[in-house]
Amino acid sequence: MRASALPVLLLLATACGERPDRATSKPVTIGFSQAGAESAWRTAETRSILDEAKSRGMVVKFADAQGDPEKQQQALRSFLLQRVDAILLAPIVETGFEPVLREVRAAKIPVVLVDRGVRVADEGLYATLIAADFVAEGRAAAAWLAQRLGGNARIAELQGTTGSSPALDRARGFAEELAKYPGMKVVKSQSGDFTRARGKEVMEAFLKAEDPAQPFTAVYAHNDDMALGAIQAIEAAGRKPGQDLVVVSIDGVRGAFEAMVRGQLDATVECSPLLGPLALDAVQQILAGRPVARRHVVPLRVFPKEQAAAELPNRRY
Ligand code: GZL
């Protein structure tokens, strides 16, 4: 088949063949390098992957990097020395992983990226990326806000972890969509590191420095945890979230739906963390020597607060 005949979207990773030294009776052993436990989303992702691995009789060596990229790189080297069969990596930031991923590839251990990407010159350093389209999520948040506020807003933006693919791309998607609306401006933007505590602190500082003649009319938070922290700060400043300021965020965690039912949060863009089945399907495909798609895009859904009460019983994270 001519290369050009290959459907572009199905550019298949050259799966690592069955490693001859892996006895079939031994359970599959996976090294899972998790970014941290910074948000409800993150802990839901960890739970999904660990529960699914257990249900499939897989052994997981779990390493929580607690937000430290150096620790993640050390974890990958440790998995290498332990000769795991495959690695799941949720990279804290996009850069700095090339050297260790080269060492892992040299050892013929396949790597599946979950929920965040890495910036590498050689895309062959990982088998597949299972993550949302963060640019699309940013666009969706901006489009919803523009429609809700009639194309006019003074926006405070709470960004995710600096250098992480969701923070970079959610900022980019939001800005690109906002460019269609001259009346919408991001007047303050700062990282809240995806945590509720930092989201509250940053919003407190924004409100303290706010020009009373030109108050914020909206908050865009790159995740629900920071939005919930910002909502606490807004209330502490005597303002009404969901009324004086429209608040939109991303993730779709249960706490966001509860805040929408209370009228404090206006909308959330769902980004599911329930990646266990997808990630472990990919691992099993690769270990069986079968090809996997280079990219699996986790779909988004926008939930405005009007839908929150009906949707809340359906939430699984
Ligand atoms: C998105 C994920 C982000 C979530 C945050 O895939 O990387 O990290 O949006 C989490 O809640 O901390």
Question: How would you characterize the overall build of this protein?
Answer:
Helices cover 37% and strands 20% of the residues. It is of the alpha/beta class and 317 residues long. Helix 6 (196-208) packs across helix 7 (224-236). Beta-D-galactofuranose (GZL) binds next to helix 1, strand 5 and strand 9. The site of beta-D-galactofuranose has 15 residues, from helix 1, strand 5 and strand 9.
Record the SSE blueprint.
Blueprint: E1 29-34, H1 40-55, E2 59-64, H2 69-81, E3 86-89, H3 98-106, E4 111-114, E5 128-132, H4 134-148, E6 153-159, H5 165-178, E7 184-191, H6 196-208, E8 218-221, H7 224-236, E9 246-251, H8 254-261, E10 267-271, H9 276-287, E11 295-298, E12 300-304, H10 308-311
Parallel strand pairs: 1-2, 1-3, 3-4, 4-5, 5-11, 6-7, 6-8, 8-9, 9-10
Antiparallel strand pairs: 10-12
Helix pairs in contact: 1-9, 2-3, 4-5, 6-7
The structure holds beta-D-galactofuranose.
